[in-house]
Amino acid sequence: MSSQYSPLIDELIEALRCLPGVGPKSAQRMSFQLLERNRSGGARLAKALEAAIDKVGHCRSCRTLTELDECLVCANPKRDRRTICVVESPADVLAFEQSGDYRGVYFVLMGHLSPIDGIGPAEIGIDLLVERVKALAVEELILATNPTVEGEATAYYISEQMRQLGVAVSRIAHGVPLGGELEYVDAGTLAHALKGRQRFE
Amino acid sequence: MSSQYSPLIDELIEALRCLPGVGPKSAQRMSFQLLERNRSGGARLAKALEAAIDKVGHCRSCRTLTELDECLVCANPKRDRRTICVVESPADVLAFEQSGDYRGVYFVLMGHLSPIDGIGPAEIGIDLLVERVKALAVEELILATNPTVEGEATAYYISEQMRQLGVAVSRIAHGVPLGGELEYVDAGTLAHALKGRQRFE
């Protein structure tokens, strides 16, 4: 596709395609936009990429992505350490943080159980989770893995482990999203919403 | 929006937003995707950005973006130097090159006439264009500026200049795009297509 335009611009277009959702046309548009109108933004992006790739690792307490030894949530003394919310990825942490309502801490699996791909309990850090639950005297573990087959299986596995430790385990509610219209909600979600109905008071 | 997640990741998310069409959510998704699954792609992108921003300038003959003194099209001895296609941006050059049909050379205005923004003939390189037309003994100048008010005004201005030099000037055809359905084509384009009709042979 990228005809022999200029080696450096061709390489920039090709490199931009590593971004999710960026096809050949958007990559072209991005390249020209940066080179024609926003070189300082491009330079800033190059620096930010280098710094993040070089320095970002995992939080030693919750496994999320961070360049610090312990992430800002885990290190915040105001967070409630007796509640742990278990999520699959760092983006989920960000989503909860942006909702602004949660005051506990997190544990990031960095994936979900998937025996076919060789991803077992060790790979998603169950040892560390068990250790943390014991160390922090956790009272409630909220399972917020994705509502997919793998996410549900992972949630089930973790709940079994926690039962042995005597920790209360809950699962976030699944149902009709706020602001959505019923007729556009898929059948599985509707069935779930019906099954999970609560008394109206 | 980007809550205090981690300074380096926050900065990466913010920096990605300089890309056209990338909002806060896509920037987040891109950041995590790169950090979790494609650090080598991210490193490659950082290098490509730095190299392109540092080295890419303008072709001395046609003003397009290139890191070379003269771009690959201008430097190609097989291209027909007696035909010049005038376009607004380097992306237009790429579009024509990908169509694969054009064998002449280009001249890139890097914009269009826009007196309100202080963009006059000097800013879009008319001097260099006139000089080139004389030096190459150009036979035909194809005006391929965008079919917008500014693009049309720019095309008109250039055609006036060329008339004084005795060069044949043409404008690319505007009409119904191939593969399009008539009912979805806007009124302006349809009117243009009707006015520009040609005898069916």
Task: Explain what the structure shows.
The structure is a homodimer of 201-residue chains. With 201 residues, chain A is α/β, with parallel strands linked by helices. Chain A has a domain at 77-171: 3-Layer(aba) Sandwich (Dna Topoisomerase Vi A Subunit, Chain: A, domain 2), CATH 3.40.1360.10. The first copy, chain A, is 46% helix and 12% strand. Chain A is built from eight helices and six strands. Chain A has helices spanning 7-16, 24-37, 39-55, 72-75, 90-99, 126-136, 149-165, 187-195, and strands at 57-58, 65-66, 80-87, 104-108, 140-143, 168-171. Chain A has a four-stranded parallel β-sheet with strand order 4-3-5-6. A two-stranded antiparallel sheet of chain A has the order 1-2. In chain A, α1 (7-16) packs across α2 and α2 (24-37) crosses α3. The relative contact order of chain A is 0.08. The mean pLDDT of chain A is 90. Chains A and B meet through α1, α2, α3, β2 and α5 of A and α1, α2, α3, β2 and α5 of B.
Short structural summary:
The structure is a homodimer of 201-residue chains. Chain A is α/β, with parallel strands linked by helices and 201 residues long.
